[in-house]
Amino acid sequence: MATTEAADPRFAKGDRPEPSFRIEMLWTDARYRSLFLQIIAFILLMLAVGWLVNNTIQNLGRLGKDFNFGFLFTEANYDINQRLISYDSQSPNWQAALVGILNTLLVAAMGCIACTVIGVIAGVLRLSKNWVVSKLMLVYIEAVRNVPVLLQILLWYAVFIEALPKPSAFRAKADAEPEATLWFDMIAATNRGFYLPRPVFEQGMTLVGLTVLASIVLLFVFNWARKNYQNAYGAEMPGAMIALAMLFAPVAGLAIVSLLFPVALIEGGLAQIPANLGAAIGAQEFALLAKAAGAVLVGALIGLVLWRAPISSMRVLILFLPGVAVYYLLGEPMTWIYPELKGFNFMAGDDAAIYARNSLMALWLALSVYTGAFVAEIVRGGIVAIPKGQTEAAAALGLRANRIMSLVILPQALRVIIPPQISQYLNLTKNSSLAIAVGYMDATGTLGGITLNQTGREMECILLLMAFYLAISLTISAVINWFNERVKLKER
Amino acid sequence: MKTSILIGTVAAGALAAGLAGAGTLDDVKAKGFVQCGVTTGLAGFAFTDDAGDWHGFDVALCRAVAGAVFGDANAVKFTPTTGKTRFTALASGEIDVLARNTTWTLSRDVDLGFDFLAVNYYDGQGFMVPTSLGVSSAKELDGATVCIQTGTTTELNLADFFRVNGMSYEPLPIETNSEAQQNYLAGACDVYTTDASGLAATKATFENPDDHMVLPEIISKEPLGPLVREGDEKWGDVVKWTYFALLTAEEYGVTAANVDEMIANPPNPDVARMLGVEGNMGEMLGLPADFGAHAIKAGGNYGEIFEAYLTPLGISRGLNKLYTEGGLQYAPPFR
């Protein structure tokens, strides 16, 4: 056809008269049709939106209601049990909403972490060669996936409030031992929630923290050095060098910290070291000798142990050894506040034990276990997607099983796992709005619940709530998409 | 072509939406039943029997309204609502009248856009504790965990009470009365607070009611009553005067049993007008002339209803006696 047209003088360029635009060309001519249809669709959409808005305004007007957000700045008048920022019943409604939003974010963040851990473990075990383990995981996944999450939340909550002892059961009676005791003398598990010991940082803890930070930097340096050694010499770094690095780590950690940060910042923590050393070793005259001998002995021991130790345990040592050493040198500058029963309840607050309410625990566990089942299937799918040949080839090269997993399988499986994982995190975050079932005061409970109810501003509250969930969902998507861009197969 | 049809459809839809809700009384008459909002379940006030039929103090008012409008106490459908959903249900027109232990407050009357019609139960907020707690006054509750229904005035009173008395507490927010009961009995909270009538009703359903006590403090005024949407005066009048008919009936000794007798032989002109023997009261309300008689037949007069549902729970009339007996219940004259 094309050749015919080209040959035909009638179609020659320039000779052909421009066809005049006729109205039916809008739907007969392919050039205009798609644009025309889109414009129509757009107009229809706008009409629908306009009708909705108009209908809302009319109906609100008939109910004698206006549309304004002034209620956000009036007193909320109600109390909220779990608040991450300061709030009382005299605070404005926006602050109540913020308390709820932070509670939503807290349970969502905790849930995303826990569901990933549960999901990865369950997903890998589902592929285990051990029949019992893999079937157990199958039962977990299928049972949990197919029961509505609301029921699971209520079940966890009911178990907590019915099975755990009341706070009063921890009180010693005149003639008898208390019915319930703290777990490990540290944790009070009551039917109102879990009271966990709160760490108190005393003078010198800053120094420990900085040392740990320095150790993390050191770990990167160590990894970089090993890689360079491997590239330069084609062999693993000799154990002796690694052991040397080990010995060097605490000293280097301390040195880096002391050089980088003035003593004022570390609250005189360094000044305590000689005193503590002296106290630990004993008489002053032996101190110098003992210190030297101790250092050599410890160094030799560590070197001996590390000579053939696996690399992963060395990383752990690099990470923790300096921090632990500094912690003890400074005379353990951290204490714990344990749960203490007073009046009706265990004490909670800034100077008492950490209080994790049952509503939070039930919601967190239920969401994590539920979403974890979906994550497990995604992880399993991701691993199965990598051809078996890859494993066999890696094994033929002499790699051990764990290195096959971490170096060959997982980096490829992640590319399959991450995209569907996004929607699981989104699901978990949105499902957290079921919180009100167990009285957890999330954004739906405060802004979309009590505030809505007490002020009667349904429209405004629901719109704000929708905007919040939309924003949080888009943020999660954006973050994980960014991560996905980094790990996905780079196509060139 | 298509576009114009669509625009036309949309416009027609908008018009139809605008026309709906001309007046609730006409709507109710057209659909043939009253849609009444009640609690999800509170002993004495609104509960279902084995057959799934609703009974209770608030339910009886709905049935009386159905009797007044249709002459049939069963021409009523019930929508269970929680403290949170009740106002939305009423504002959206899902229910015609809300009879659900709802406290009459200024903000609800004015800002939420509702009309409270009468007070069918004068109540106040109280606290219930297990006797084993060893507490005898609400002032001793510093640091306690308190079960509370969300979206209620009790939630606000509670915050005020503890703040004014300089005490701290841990609120345990709960959606319905039955959940509150479960949490309270499991000891997840030390105290349950709601209207004193609700406490008595809840306590009566416990396995061992004697293990629990209601503390002497009443920390608020809770006038409970039926309400309708604002700007719906005609329908509001129907509910209001149905309720007054029940009160007037008690005042003059008209009961479900003797109402026919009373019609035949009214003891005084007020009763005669209320029962439709004289005057045109029903016509003024847009109801049948004998609306009052049917309202009383539905479940008896105010005293009978109270006796049937609340007295068995150990709730005394108290403030809810007739004014003639020193209470606050008082009906304006039928004239």
TrEMBL record, chain A:
SUPFAM superfamilies named in the record: MetI-like
Tagged with keyword tRNA processing: no
Listed name of the protein: ABC transporter permease subunit
Family note: Belongs to the binding-protein-dependent transport system permease family. HisMQ subfamily.
Domain of life, source organism: Bacteria
Main location, first listed in the record: membrane
Subcellular location: Cell inner membrane; Cell membrane
Organism: Paralimibaculum aggregatum
Bilayer topology term: Multi-pass membrane protein
Keyword Nucleus: no
TM region(s), chain numbering: 35-53, 96-125, 137-159, 204-225, 237-266, 286-307, 316-339, 359-379, 462-483
CDD domains: TM_PBP2
Automatic annotation (TrEMBL), chain B:
Transmembrane segments: none
Pfam families: SBP_bac_3
Domain Solute-binding protein family 3/N-terminal: 33-262
UniProt keyword Transport present: yes
Keyword Protein transport found: no
Domain of life: Bacteria
InterPro entries per UniProt: Bact_solute-bind_prot3, Solute-binding_3/MltF_N
Secretion signal, residue range per the UniProt entry: 1-22
Coiled-coil portions: none
Gene3D superfamilies per record: Periplasmic binding protein-like II
Keywords in alphabetical order: Signal, Transport
Family: Belongs to the bacterial solute-binding protein 3 family.
PANTHER family: AMINO ACID ABC TRANSPORTER PERMEASE (PTHR30085), AMINO-ACID ABC TRANSPORTER-BINDING PROTEIN YHDW-RELATED (PTHR30085:SF7)
Name by which UniProt lists this protein: Amino acid ABC transporter substrate-binding protein
Organism: Paralimibaculum aggregatum
